[in-house]
Amino acid sequence: xxxxxxxxxxxxxxxxxxxxxxxxxxxxxxxxxxxxxxxxxxxxxxxxxxxxxxxxxxxxxxxxxxxxxxxxxxxxxxxxxxxxxxxxxxxxxxxxxxxxxxxxxxxxxxxxxxxxxxxxxxxxxxxxxxxxxxxxxxxxxxxxxxxxxxxxxxxxxxxxxxxxxxxxxxxxxxxxxxxxxxxxxxxxxxxxxxxxxxxxxxxxxxxxxxxxxxxxxxxxxxxxxxxxxxxxxxxxxxxxxxxx
Length: 244
Description:
By secondary structure, the chain is of the alpha+beta class. The protein folds into 2 domains: 11-169, GAF domain (Beta-Lactamase, 2-Layer Sandwich); 172-242, Orthogonal Bundle (Arc Repressor Mutant, subunit A). It contains 11 helices and 6 strands. The protein has helices at 11-18, 23-38, 65-71, 82-86, 104-110, 145-153, 155-171, 175-185, 190-197, 201-215, 220-230; strands at residues 42-47, 56-61, 91-93, 117-124, 130-138, 241-242. The protein is elongated, with a radius of gyration of 20 Å. The protein starts with 10 loop residues before the first helix and ends with a strand. It comes from Mycolicibacterium litorale. Residues 166-231 form the HTH luxR-type domain.
């Protein structure tokens, strides 16, 4: 995890990351771009697992572990975050919530770290359900309308990313089942998977049946299509840090 105070990356590395074929690298590129352009000293993205009380931290830059864990807990239930989560379409900063600087989160968690402003962007699906959120904080107080527009342009990218992570969490595939699914996406037969992973055909068949059942699909072709649409079975996604 990058610590607060680390140098921001240069534009060349950011541009390279943002066109990467790997979603995680593109996300990091977008985060770095926002940090450079808006002056944010920290940034985190978290997703809300189905039926979970809090959030699951995916990536944190510039926060201490303790602060990142706090900000990705069940903050949605805290009084000082009610305004932020009441309108899923807005990007809300401290000035939009006058009581926030003196709240526990503002006064006891963020201000001791040197932050004087920050924003929260709720990520939601088409039905308005919260699927994740992004938070950033900064030492300087200003957060302009231009900065809001710049952050807003990244909303679809972040939303798609956390939606895929939610789908992966919902499926609850084991590491071996993810491996099997990745090979199904490549079009390998059970026999070819058996040879690739040095497993018996019976074991492979059992894993395939479990994958189909967990994904709620009838056959391996449907599993491959479903996995491709949701980004399941891709090795580039890191295991999210779950927060109780």
